[in-house]
Design a protein that fits this description.
single chain, about 170 residues, mainly beta, Vitelline Membrane Outer Layer Protein I, subunit A, 5-stranded antiparallel sheet
């Protein structure tokens, strides 16, 4: 099954889905985030999300699932669910469309992931926008990811990078 939220950004297309290797599940996550660019510059904020896959809570496998990520920003360190927890749900922080002549569209600015054993993992995104409702929860664990990405349009354009997210349940 697929879990999603209702507040994702409206731009771009759904990229390819990517799954954790068979028999593994997502127990960690990292975030690709562009720092604020300053007045009159184009901000993209959240550019990508990478799931870190585990077999039975073992984090040493090094397997990841990513889908498509934007070109800006840097990857954060992985955040892990403690005590063999698994990712089971998420929420997005999204800046609603500004629709102004001089406004800078940003779309998704941060994300939070719920662990099966209670903790919430929050990315290092920006404070712009509002948190939406939580997705439904996967009964067992998250095993895959698909992103909605606005492509890079080039010089003097308004890029938004990551707009929306879907996760696949095991």
């Amino acid at each position: 099954s697929v879990i999603a939220v209702s507040n994702g950004g409206p731009w771009g297309d759904w990229a390819w889905p990517e799954m954790c290797p068979k028999g593994s599940y997502a127990s960690g996550v990292s975030f690709k985030v562009e720092d604020p660019q300053g007045l009159m510059e184009d901000d993209t904020a959240l550019n990508g999300i990478r799931l870190h896959c585990s077999h039975g809570g073992d984090h040493s496998g090094g397997y990841t699932a990513e889908s498509q990520s934007g070109r800006w920003g840097h990857w954060s360190e992985a955040l892990w669910c403690p005590h063999q927890g698994r990712l089971v749900g998420f929420t997005l922080r999204v800046q609603a469309p500004q629709r102004g002549l001089l406004s800078d569209e940003v779309a998704a600015t941060s994300a939070r992931f719920a662990c099966s054993n209670g903790p919430i993992l929050e990315g290092p995104g920006s404070a712009w926008g509002q948190w939406g409702a939580w997705s439904p929860q996967c009964p067992r664990a998250v095993c895959g990811i698909q992103t909605r990405q606005d492509p890079a349009w080039g010089l003097k354009s308004d890029d938004t990078a990551l707009n929306d997210l879907r996760l696949f349940c095991c």
